[in-house]
């Protein structure tokens, strides 16, 4: 009687089953993906993270691991495995409860595409009928391919291709037996067997899959033993990619979403940026090293927080991993909880199951917080949350999460293509893009634009300007009486304009602005891409009291680097659709196009010459000394109260800008200048990207005349003048203090 009823239900229900068009014309939701110019994935955006894999491209070991874990008789049954149902029923009865299921891969495909997850007999019957229909219309390999790409595997990963990348940071074709078994164990319970969240349960599930693979002769005893011994390196941070370019990826996402708002996160668009892996990694590494160096100079602040370890039973207690989950893992800066601490060693548990011991040099940075006299709310003791990092010798050391922020970006000064962009120390901690969004005072890094304007007003690099104290009443400044000073409080009297820029003399910059006219200079700097309203027409503009972004500074310094042309920086070169057709492409206008010429090429040449002096014997002399080349140009910048530190500069093929400061502006510390706090990041980047680039210098434009002029202690030298502005005679520069060290 029951069989007859089932037959009636089947006869009535089968014709009403849904169309299989969604399977035969499978179009998975492919996220928006962002790449470097040389093809490295740096970001993907969408509800579902996918990497579609064709069946023939899936490694055999991955297929076998799935079959062993989910449906060993997949190629024998017709959609529903009767033998498997009987075996599961017997196991459940003997086990005293509902322990095993018997859904085949085909049934799981039916459920994933057409059904809810409710557990009722009617739904199970519907699932079985759909499985029969699927088997009747698709080949086994087609069904298996759908399963491989559609199944949910945790961490927003759909399909084994995405899971391989997310959990192990590698494409599916590079998967090992041990890794395949770990992934194959996920479909049963993606949360319970997630190797990031539950590493121990995931390991037990992996061992089960490996045992089944051995029992089915998919692997031999030696492979089984080796797979069990392999230590799996699971990515703890699921937003990691081959290149650290999170701010770049986010900028590209916004551009794509603005241009193609409909289905932008599901149709498989690919955005190619202008950054390259080599440039981006050079910028990222150099910025982080510089921030760490700054942070170490200012001492250890103590424990980040404290955790109650009263209920912890052992050093391998899973609860330790749970309490560390809320602490962000910043690249190589790992959160850890102290288990035991004294002045000689610290034992700590690092997220992921590793207990480490820190001794000797590894304790040096935090030594004062290990003493009994350390403040109780900062002292390192059991339960303290700390940050640990491997040093160059692969030994653990105590570090801390820096509070300071930083930004670096570089561009091709001739096309505007951004070569690298790091918008902050850690995107996971702070998504604010300091390279494009942070409006900060530029300090002395703004002086070159004052000097450039002065050249247009008839000054020359050989002009003598007074470096003596000066004061202004409130009526002149627009606020209150002002008595500016040089950074070092020293004054050297009359000096050449060239020397004054190299030494970053504030008094000379102010006098040049006053003589040129503040309104003229306010308008003049807009040629470089600055906004007039951000630079009020007061003499404080001479010291960089306005507001700029690093993006603007790169744009502006490019004018000097390329001979006088204002380029438009851009970061997306191309957008391609799901059929690999170009649907949007950048059309940059490059330097050399007369429509972009914003200053006299002679002006650019003279400024380039003076800015090279800055890096040879001026406030940025460390640049040429370190990189052993004389074709570098740029300017340091330090604002009042040491709030912001800058270095912006270039070599003819690349322009870069480095900034460091706090989000809530405060003093960086005495002695922290553009030359000490910002310049090292620029040097670190340029040292890598210019390694094989020969020295090159700007060709001399027409309309300049070279004259020998009386020098200072260095003897006679030559200087360039506009042809129509050649002086009858040039006043010699008064002797300068040769021992004075320029700082800014």
Provide a brief overview of the structure.
This protein is 35% helix and 15% strand. It has 744 residues and is an alpha+beta fold. The chain has three domains: 2-25 and 46-229, Penicillin binding protein transpeptidase fold (Orthogonal Bundle), CATH 1.10.3810; 301-399, OB fold (Dihydrolipoamide Acetyltransferase, E2P), CATH 2.40.50; 407-693 and 710-725, Beta-lactamase.
What are the defining features of this structure?
OB fold (Dihydrolipoamide Acetyltransferase, E2P), 744 residues, 3 domains, five-stranded mixed beta sheet, elongated, 22 strands, Beta-lactamase, alpha+beta, six-stranded antiparallel beta sheet, Penicillin binding protein transpeptidase fold
Tell me about this structure.
The protein is an alpha+beta fold. It has 3 domains: 2-25 and 46-229, Biosynthetic peptidoglycan transglycosylase-like (Penicillin binding protein transpeptidase fold, Orthogonal Bundle); 301-399, OB fold (Dihydrolipoamide Acetyltransferase, E2P) (Beta Barrel); 407-693 and 710-725, Beta-lactamase (3-Layer(aba) Sandwich). 35% of the residues lie in helices and 15% in strands. It is built from 24 helices and 22 strands. Strands 6, 7, 8, 9, 10 and 11 form a 6-stranded antiparallel beta sheet that branches. A 5-stranded mixed beta sheet has the order 2-1-5-16-17, covered by helices on one side. Strands 13-12-20-19-18 form a 5-stranded antiparallel beta sheet, with helices on both faces. Strand 16 (572-576) and strand 17 (582-585) form a beta hairpin. Helix 18 crosses helix 22 (601-617). The chain is elongated and about 105 Å long. The N and C termini lie far apart (95 Å). Residues 96-100 have low confidence and may be disordered.
């Amino acid at each position: 009687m029951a069989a007859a009823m089932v037959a009636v239900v089947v006869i009535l229900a089968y014709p009403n089953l849904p169309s299989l068009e969604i399977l035969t014309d499978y179009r998975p939701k492919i996220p928006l993906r962002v790449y470097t110019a040389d093809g490295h994935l740096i970001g993907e955006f969408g509800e579902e993270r996918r990497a579609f894999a064709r069946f023939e491209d899936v490694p055999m070991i991955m297929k076998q691991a799935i079959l062993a874990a989910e449906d060993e008789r997949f190629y024998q049954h017709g959609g529903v495995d009767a033998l498997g149902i009987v075996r599961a029923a017997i196991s459940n009865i003997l086990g005293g409860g509902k322990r095993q299921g018997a859904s085949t891969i085909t049934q799981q495909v039916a459920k994933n595409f057409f059904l809810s997850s409710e557990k009722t007999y009617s739904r199970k019957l519907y699932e079985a009928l759909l499985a029969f229909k699927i088997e009747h219309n698709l080949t086994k390999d087609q069904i298996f391919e759908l399963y491989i790409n559609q199944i949910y595997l945790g961490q927003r990963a759909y399909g084994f291709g995405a899971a391989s990348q997310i959990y192990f940071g590698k494409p599916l074709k590079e998967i090992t037996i041990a890794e395949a078994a770990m992934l194959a164990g996920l479909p049963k319970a993606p949360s319970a067997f997630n190797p990031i969240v539950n590493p121990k349960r995931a390991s037990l599930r992996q061992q089960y899959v490996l045992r089944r693979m051995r029992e089915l002769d998919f692997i031999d005893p030696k492979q089984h033993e080796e797979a069990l011994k392999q230590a799996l390196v699971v990515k703890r941070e699921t937003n990691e990619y081959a290149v650290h370019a999170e701010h770049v990826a986010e900028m590209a996402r916004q551009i794509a979403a603005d241009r193609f708002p409909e289905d932008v996160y599901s149709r498989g668009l690919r955005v190619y940026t202008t950054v390259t892996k080599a440039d981006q990694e050079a910028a990222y590494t150099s910025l982080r090293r510089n921030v760490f160096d700054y942070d170490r100079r200012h001492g250890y602040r103590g424990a980040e927080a404290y955790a109650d370890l009263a209920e912890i039973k052992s050093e391998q207690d899973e609860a330790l991993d749970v309490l560390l989950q809320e602490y962000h893992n910043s690249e190589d800066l790992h959160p850890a909880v102290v288990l035991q601490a004294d002045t000689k060693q610290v034992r700590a548990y690092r997220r992921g199951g590793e207990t480490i011991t820190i001794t000797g040099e590894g304790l040096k940075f935090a030594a004062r917080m290990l003493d009994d006299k350390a403040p109780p709310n900062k002292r390192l003791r059991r339960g303290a949350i700390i940050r640990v990092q491997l040093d160059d010798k692969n030994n653990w050391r105590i570090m801390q999460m820096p509070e300071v922020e930083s930004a670096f970006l570089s561009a091709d000064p001739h096309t505007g293509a951004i070569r690298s962009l790091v918008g902050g120390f850690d995107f996971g901690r702070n998504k604010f893009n300091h390279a494009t969004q942070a409006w900060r005072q530029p300090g002395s890094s703004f002086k070159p634009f004052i000097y450039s304007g002065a050249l247009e007003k008839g000054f020359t690099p050989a002009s003598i300007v007074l470096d003596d104290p000066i004061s202004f009443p409130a009526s002149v400044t627009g606020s209150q009486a002002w008595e500016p000073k040089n950074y070092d409080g020293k004054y050297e009297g009359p000096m050449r304009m060239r020397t004054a820029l190299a030494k970053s003399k504030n008094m000379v910059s102010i006098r040049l602005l006053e003589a040129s006219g503040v309104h003229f200079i306010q308008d003049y700097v807009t040629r470089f891409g600055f906004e007039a309203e951000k630079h009020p027409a007061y003499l404080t503009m001479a010291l960089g009291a306005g507001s700029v972004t690093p993006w603007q500074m790169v744009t502006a310094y490019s004018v000097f680097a390329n001979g006088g042309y204002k380029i438009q920086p851009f970061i997306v070169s191309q957008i391609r659709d799901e059929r690999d057709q170009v649907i949007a492409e950048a059309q940059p206008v490059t330097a050399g196009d007369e429509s972009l010429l914003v200053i006299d090429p002679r002006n650019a040449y003279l400024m380039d010459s003076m800015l090279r002096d800055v890096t040879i014997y001026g406030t940025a002399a460390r640049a040429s000394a370190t990189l052993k080349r004389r074709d570098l140009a740029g300017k340091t910048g330090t604002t009042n109260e040491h709030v912001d530190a800058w270095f912006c500069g270039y070599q003819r093929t690349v322009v870069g800008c480095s900034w460091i400061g706090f989000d809530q502006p405060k003093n960086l510390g005495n002695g922290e200048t553009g030359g000490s706090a910002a310049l090292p990041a620029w040097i670190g980047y340029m040292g890598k990207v210019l390694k094989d680039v020969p020295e090159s210098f700007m060709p001399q434009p027409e309309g300049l005349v070279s004259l020998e002029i009386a020098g200072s202690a260095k003897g006679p030298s030559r200087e360039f003048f506009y042809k129509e502005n050649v002086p009858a005679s040039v006043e010699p520069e008064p002797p300068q203090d040769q021992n004075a060290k320029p700082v800014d």
